[in-house]
Amino acid sequence: MKDHWISNYDWFALKNQLLSNLREFGVDLIGVADARPFTELRERLNQWHDNGWASGFEERDVDLRTEPNRALESGSARSIISIAIAYPSKLLNPPKSELGAYRGVIARSAWGEDYHTVLRDRLQRIRTWLISRVPEAEIVSMVDTGVLSDRAVAERAGIGFSGKNCSIISPSMGSWLYLGELVTNLPFEADIPMLDQCGTCTKCIDACPTGALVGPGQLNAQTCISLITQLKGVLDDDQKKHIGNRLYGCDTCQVVCPYNKGMDWHLHQELEPDPALAKPLLKPLISMSQRVFRDQFGRTAAAWRGNAPIRRNAIIGLGHFRDVTAVPELTRAMNEDARVEIREAAVWALGRIGTDDARDALVNRLASNLEGTEVVMKALQQALATLK
Ligand code: B12
Ligand code: SF4
Ligand code: SF4
After folding, report:
1. Is position 263 within any domain?
2. Cα–Cα distance for residue pair 29/143, rounded to 1 Å
3. How remote is the CA of residue 289 from the centroid of ligand 1, in Å?
4. Residue 171 falls within a domain, yes or no?
5. Please, which of 33, 169, 267, 268 could form a disulfide with 80 given CB 3.0 to 4.6 Å?
6. pLDDT at res. 332
């Protein structure tokens, strides 16, 4: 019989050991979900894609996303171990934006070392532990880039409930949590899923700057600022308006959540933020080279889209602050940068700043006839028309 080994183990005792070992594994919450298909999620994902609300970053194959069996070569997944690691929400010595030294904001989930690396390390520790006890174990680990919905797994495993802001919220730890899981062929008993505890609160929906939370637990990712900061290329005026000085990600719908009040976890050295990187000065980012970007942001989760979106967002941030001291750097970016989205954003920012030297720079650029890209030409004309 293929699965004769199952009866050789005391699964109840093994699960208890697994759960009580969480500190040794370096994780903060752990739970077990059964591996049945996620039927409710299937419908929800189909609807999400049909509405055009998906982000484009997630796995598109809904079968793979909702059928844990497909994750294992044997096709017989029996349990999914869900883990959560809590991250800091406050900077101990936050640098301040000052006139001529304005700063941008990196979302908390991208502070410290890239969580993919940290969670993979923890998942590997659990895998090694399991295999040392059950050599027949078949295990596939996932974090973020895996096919399953990390949140749907965590909810089913009782790690937390699914909030109206879409986040998994632990009543004891809040939602500043990274999630990951191990799909296994091990017949652990499942924990009890956690039910919604938002009650009548709607703070996150009310606070979302773009109305991206179209309903409780329903996100139009296309208008979510977190996605917008990560898009490549030129942003439209609405997108520019909403990102403000955010360089990567958006935390608004979690900051306002009552379950996050007082939640600030400093439990993992790797996740400790460098305040100067969590709130970087904007001006040096305008012309940040690839090498400097790799040195500064390369180990963080904000690096995966490359340096152009962060540079573009920094320029937009300077436009929002109307930083007159940035005009020379912005002018250089508008005239010389090889990337269209950087030149376009520089034009927009100079238009917002609107001082005499900013306007002169725009006029000279238009008159030079050197700008060969339509979208930048349009931005130049629009900026000058607005300044008039
Ligand atoms: C694509 C993606 C995004 C997209 C879309 C986000 C979204 N809400 O779907 C964008 C780029 C916008 C994004 C942003 C963020 N993300 Co993201 N993202 C993902 C990714 C890769 C897939 C998410 C997905 O499939 N969404 C599709 C929706 C439909 O499903 P879901 O949210 O996964 O599942 C829930 C719903 O389906 C709901 N549901 C199912 N059936 C039903 C039925 C009813 C009636 C209801 C009401 C709900 C409901 O319950 C499920 C569990 O909560 C996951 C990693 C992964 N592989 O899962 C990370 C992940 C969700 N992201 C994460 C984080 C941290 C963020 C940000 C906070 C980052 C930031 N600071 O900017 C924001 C938060 C934005 C928000 N309000 O959700 C964490 C969430 C951790 C947590 N505590 O919940 C994840 C799990 C990554 C990780 N491994 O830690 N993200
Ligand atoms: S991350 Fe920001 S834009 Fe996206 S849903 Fe939350 S508050 Fe709205
Ligand atoms: S802000 Fe309120 S509604 Fe939104 S997730 Fe938190 S408790 Fe739920």
Report:
1. no
2. 15
3. 32
4. yes
5. 33
6. 98
Q: State whether 70 and 141 are in the same domain.
A: yes
Q: Is residue 269 part of a domain?
A: no
The CB of 220 under 6 Å from ligand 2? The reply is no
Q: Which atom of ligand 1 is nearest to the CA of 155?
A: 52
Q: What is the pLDDT of residue 2?
A: 75
Residue 230 CA: nearest ligand 1 atom is 11
- What pLDDT, on the 0 to 100 scale, is given for residue 1? 58
What local confidence, expressed as pLDDT, does residue 107 receive?
98
Token readout for 239 is: 């997108």
* The ligand 3 atom nearest the CA atom of 260: 6
Q: How many CA atoms lie within 13 A of 184 on its CB side?
A: 26
264 is a catalytic site residue: no
Length of the chain: 388
260 lines ligand 2 (CB under 6 A): no
CA distance 254 to 81: 25
Residues 295 and 161 placed together within one structural domain of the fold: no
- Nearest ligand, CA 208: 2
DSSP code of residue 285: G
For residue 57, the one-letter residue type is F
122 and 228 fall within a common domain: no
Pair 154, 220 in one domain: no
Contact of 208 with 191, CB cutoff 8 Å: no
pTM of the model: 0.97
- Confidence at residue 200, expressed as pLDDT on a 0 to 100 scale: 98
Structurally, the chain folds into a number of domains equal to: 2
* Nearest partner of 305 among 338, 344, 349, 341, judged by Cα: 341
Stretches where the chain sits below pLDDT 50 are none
pLDDT the model gives residue 86: 98
For ligand 1, is residue 134 a contact (CB within 6 Å)?
A: no
Q: Two tokens at 170?
A: 């632990």
Which of 257, 261, 263 has the most ligand 3 atoms within 8 A of CB, as the residue to mutate? 257
Which atom of ligand 1 is closest in space to residue 164's alpha carbon? 47
Residues 237, 295 within the same domain: yes
What's the gap in Å between 221 CA and the centre of ligand 2?
9
Name the 3-class secondary structure at 201: coil
Domain that holds residue 323: 210-249+282-387
Rounded to an integer, what distance in angstroms lies between the CA atom of residue 131 and that of residue 139?
Answer: 9
75 lines ligand 3 (CB under 6 A): no
Residue 42 amino acid letter: R
- Nearest ligand by distance to the CA of 40: 1
Q: Which of 3, 121, 144, 191 is catalytic?
A: 144
